[in-house]
Amino acid sequence: MADASDVRRLALALPHSVEIDSDGFDFRVGGKGFVWSYPERRPGKPRMIRTDIAVLYVGDEAEKQALLLGEPALFFTTPGYDGLPLVMVRLEAVTVERLAELVIDAWRMRIPAQLLAGLDEALASEAAGS
């Protein structure tokens, strides 16, 4: 079982990741969001920030559908996210290890190419020096 503090710890451990001010959690890399708390919209009421649910960037509709169909107890979506490469994950239903994979994948898909290239070069230099 994971929680908001796990999301925060995992996201902040990634290079160039920043948390922006919000009522829950909201992480960006290169100005692009990759994981944030779910802003639940309720008819006739103000939206409620749900820190027990994370919204994750997944890349494309095919991956989104694979997650939704393959693990419906873990992932869901709402009509407001139709056509967007985003899924919601129930934090109480996901292991910290699986959450780490999901957060890293989302970060990797959103990091600008020039930042990622710089990281790959730094890692290659470190490996060559060891």
TrEMBL record:
Lineage top rank: taxon: Bacteria
A Pfam family this chain is assigned to: YjbR
Record's protein name: MmcQ/YjbR family DNA-binding protein
Species annotation: Micromonospora lutea
